[in-house]
Amino acid sequence: MLYIAARDHVFAISLSASSEQIVPQQKLTWKTKDVDKCTVRGKNSDECYNYIKVLVPRNDEMLFACGTNAFNPTCRNYKMSTLEQDGEEVVGQARCPFESRQSNVGLFAGGDFYSATMTDFLASDAVIYRSLGESSPVLRTVKYDSKWLREPHFLHAIEYGNYVYFFFSEIAVEYTTLGKVVFSRVARVCKNDNGGSPRVLERYWTSFLKARLNCSVPGDSFFYFDVLQSLTNVLQINHRPAVLGVFTTQANSITGSAVCAFYMDDIEKAFNGKFKEQRNSESAWTPVPEEQVPKPRPGCCAGDGSAAAYKSSTTFPDDTLTFIKNHPLMDEAVPSVNHRPYFTRTTSRFKLTQLAVDTSAGPYKNHTVLFLGSEDGRVLKILASTQLNASFSTQLLEDIDVYNPTKCNVRGEDRRVLGLELDREHHALFVAFSSCVIRVPLSRCNDYEKCSTAFTHKLEPADWRLHLWIPPKQPSAHQP
Fold first, then answer.
1. Which of 127, 228, 262, 281 fits as disulfide partner to 184, beta carbons 3.0 to 4.6 Å?
2. Does one domain contain both 236 and 301?
């Protein structure tokens, strides 16, 4: 089943149904009742709808959905089999943004809902948040502290081992002398974090750490792709767990895009490395000397590593809690696999926006194929070599113009690819735009306009903020 989250609606599409058009098997309609209140606030009338921004599995039978609800974020549970509501609504604040254009991520892990978004009407308070657990306390990042989060744009969240990882881009606090420079980050929290003591970090994360993701072309002068656009879940590269992401250049730089991969154990090495600090507002950011790092090591999970003797983070010493509060940033960046991108593109004026990866492509299922969506409605199909060598070899298999104005007819063409979802079983790629979803066959086709099928739903104005999701056959947490 393919789930399409849109404005006022969620559609369930059967992947096995054969049809010239993509036809919803089920449709959920959830419209806001707060339109009048929304327009009175003087907000853009286009935002006075219910944009479904969260759609994740709560368990094998239940979907958890949250919508902007005309600037009154609200969440509900729905039965996966029928899309019928189950139980009462819950407040969506800190779980869902107030506006459709604000970024957010969310997932359930161990019965708790982990979310990252804006918590207030003015979008001034960014948060990484845990809630809805039966036994775990509600926790969040420290409020209005730029060392923790500074104007973040959240992209992805992953449960892996004892942690939940958040991937985002933000204004780099360590490079303020250069103006507003965007860096990409990975942050980590322990799933068994219970917050700090009544004196330090009570009801806040005690395990929050973040590190820069380094996607760059090496040389005498490194060329950086600093802005994360899209990221995969954990997959295997060279028999090692890794993630792949699309990165682009800064907004005021030349137009460029790249695909970089990061091993999960390299991410762990960064979190086990040195911390970064700024001694005063005038000084540069430097590594914290190891002898100044308290024990148990800040960022450790209770009952593990140097914190093995502690049953709960609430019993951590004040020194450890105070240090982590003031030093969430790691000194070393996470290096990309082979210290270079898989693929770069700097000759087009259109940036890449989305990524889907098939690590078992080909007749013998031994090839890795990347599908890269772009701002101009195209999808690049790239054959990538993942072998350990000095340079990656990639081959452009196809450059497909997916956007079809006859099937995605809206006022003012928005050709930006908003989402890619791979249906391996049926050899198809679903491509989401602001006004439609296109199904593209993965086998070669001489005329994609004829081969592809589309799903549109007449809405005025046609403005969906689509995202796609195909549930795994057996949902389970990744293990290292």
1. 228
2. yes
Number of domains in the chain: 2
Sign of CA dihedral 240, 246, 251, 253: positive
Q: Domain of residue 457: give its range.
A: 1-15+348-480
Angle at the Cα of 341 (from 339 to 345), degrees rounded to 5?
Answer: 150
134 and 98 fall within a common domain:
yes
Check residue 46 and give left, alpha or beta (phi > 0: left; psi -120 to 50: alpha). alpha
Distance separating alpha carbons of residues 73 and 61, to the nearest angstrom: 23
Single-letter code of the amino acid located at 139: L
The one-letter amino acid code at 361 reads A
Give residue-wise pLDDT tens across range 408-449: 766 556 889 999 999 988 889 999 988 888 999 887 666 656
Question: Are residue 403 and residue 320 in the same domain, yes or no?
Answer: no
What is the tens place of the pLDDT at every residue in 70-83?
999 999 999 999 99
CA distances (Å), origin 295, targets 291, 299, 312: 10, 10, 15
- Do 121 and 23 lie in one domain? The reply is yes
Report how far residue 235's alpha carbon sits from residue 232's, in angstroms, rounded to the nearest whole number. Answer: 8
pTM for this entry: 0.94
Chosen domain end from 304, 329, 345:
345
Q: Within a 10 A sphere around the Cβ of 282, how many other Cβ atoms?
A: 6
Q: Do 373 and 464 fall within a single domain?
A: yes
Give the span between the Cα atoms of 462 and 475, in whole angstroms. 33
**Averaged pLDDT, 273-285:** 92
At 247, list the tokens: 């990165």
Categorise residue 299: left if φ over 0, alpha if ψ from -120 to 50, beta otherwise.
Answer: left
Judged by DSSP in three states, 207 sits in coil
Q: Exposed, middle or buried, 102 (CB in 10 Å: 0-12/13-18/19+)?
A: middle
Q: How is residue 206 written in tokens? A: 């005690």
Q: Quick one: which H or E segment has residue 216?
A: strand 216-217
Residues counted in the chain: 480
